[in-house]
Amino acid sequence: MNSEEYMRKTFTAAWCVLWFSLALFAQGGKETQTKKYTFGGSSTVAPIIESAIPAFMAEHKGVVLTYETLGSSVGIKQLQEGTLSLAGSSRELKDSEIQAGLMPVTIALDGLSVAVNKDVGISNLSMAELASIFSGELTNWKEVGGLDEAVRLVVRDETSGTYGSFKEIVLDKAKKSPSKNAIVAKENGEVATKIASTPGAIGYIGMAFGKIITQAGGRVLTIDGVSPEASQVKSGKYPISRNLYMVSKGKAEGVEQTFIGFLLSPKGQAIVEESGFIALH
Question: What is the CATH superfamily name and number for domain 113-235?
Answer without folding.
Answer: Periplasmic binding protein-like II (3.40.190.10)
